[in-house]
Amino acid sequence: MRAGLWHPGAVALALALLSFMSGCSPVVVGPAALPASQDQPAEYRIQPGDQMDVKFFYNPELNESVTVRPDGRVSLQLAQEIVAAGLTPAELTQVLKESYARELDQPEITVILRSFSGQRIYVDGEVNKPALVPLTAAMTVLQSIAVAGGLKDSARTNAIVVIRRGPESTPTVFAVDLSRVLDGTDPGQDVALMPFDVVYVPKSAIANVNVWVDQYLRKNVPVSFGLSYQINNQP
Question: What is the pTM of this model?
Answer without folding.
Answer: 0.56
